[in-house]
Amino acid sequence: MNVLITWKFLDDTDVELLRQKTGVNVIKSDSKEHALELAPHADVVFGFPSTEILQAAVNCKWLQTPYVGVERILRSEWGNTEMVVTNASGCFGPPIAEHAIGLILAFNRGLHLARDNQNGQVWNMNTNYPFRELSNATVGILGYGDLGRNIAIRLAGFGCRTIAFRNNPTGHEKHKVHSLESFPDLAGELDYLICALPETPKTIGLLDKNMMQLLPKHVIIVNVGRGSLIPGDDLIFALEQGIIAGAGLDVTDPEPLPNESPLWKMPNVIITPHNSAFTPFHKERLMQIFLENWDHFKANGEPKINVVDEQLGY
C-alpha cells in the first residue's frame, strides 16, 4: 500500500514517523511533477492536491486534507469517484475562536485606534469612543461546528449569552442551536455576530444587506469563515449607512481584498489577512487525526473521522 504526501509542511522526520506507525510505503513528493508521477500508484493521499493530481490518483481510496474548507476539492474531477475525503476539523477551533474574540475585544476597547495613535506617537484617550464590554452581551454564532463550539466555550467565560445557528442542528449540542432559517427571527437580539460557516451553495451571499438590516445598528460582525457569506458591496453599504456598527474581517469578498476597496480605510473595520487559523499545533493535531483515521482505514477500508459529505459540502 502506498501513501503519497503532498503537504509541504511534513518533513522527513514526520514521514518516517508515518512509515513506522502505518507500516506501509510512505512517499513525500518533492514537486508537482513528482506528485503527478506518483499519484496513479497512491492508495492514500495526505495533502491538498491540485486538480491534475486528483485526476491522476485513479487508485486513491482516501484523501486527508490539511484544511477544513474543501470546496476546491469537491469542485474538481477525481480519478476515483469513490474516494473518501476527510478534512482537518478539530485543528483550528482554538486559534480561530481566540482570533474572533480578539477582534471583538479590539473593537470594544478601541485597540485598533490606539495602535494607529501609537504609530503616530499621539497620546489620545479617545474619550468619545463608544467603549464596550462583553459582559452580559448576546453573541450570535453562525455555524456551530468545531469553530462555533470553541467560540461558544470561550464566550461563556466573558459572561455572554450565545445564540448559535447551523445548517443541520442535531439536537445533541451542548448549547441551544437553531437552524439557519431561524436567523431572521432572532437577529434583533444580537450585540455581536460571529460568522464561522463553510462555503456551500446555501451559504454564499446568505448575509446580504437585507439580512444585515435585521440586526441592531450597534452590532459588530466578525467573519472568520468564508468571505463569500457576505457580498462585499453589501457589507460596504451596511457600514457606510450605519446599518451595522463595525466589522472584523479575516476573510473578504473578494479575497484578497483589492487595493481600491473602501474597507481598507474605514475606521470601523479591522482586517486580518485570512490568518486566524495559524497555530503552532496544526501539524501535531493533523497527524493525530490522520493516525486515528488510519486505524479505521486499516480495519474497515475507510476512515471515519471528519468524513466530508459531498452533498453538504463539508
Describe this structure as you would to a colleague:
This protein is of the alpha/beta class and 314 residues long. The protein has 2 domains: 2-90 and 281-300, NAD(P)-binding Rossmann-like Domain (Rossmann fold), CATH 3.40.50; 93-271, 3-Layer(aba) Sandwich (Rossmann fold), CATH 3.40.50.720. It has helices at residues 12-22, 32-38, 51-56, 71-75, 93-109, 111-119, 146-156, 183-186, 209-212, 232-240, 282-300, and strands at residues 2-5, 25-28, 44-46, 62-64, 84-86, 138-142, 161-166, 177-179, 192-195, 220-223, 246-249, 269-271. The radius of gyration is 22 Å and the shape is elongated.
Biggest beta sheet attributes = 7 strands, parallel
Give the termini separation.
27 Å
Low-confidence stretches: none
**Shape, please?**
elongated
The CATH superfamily of the largest domain bears the name NAD(P)-binding Rossmann-like Domain
In DSSP terms (H or I, runs of 4 or more residues), the helix count works out at 11
What share of the residues lie within helices? 25-40%
Name of the top-level CATH class of the largest domain: Alpha Beta
The figure for the number of domains is 2
Strand residues, percent = 5-15%
Count the strands? Answer: 12
* Second CATH tier, the architecture of the largest domain: 3-Layer(aba) Sandwich
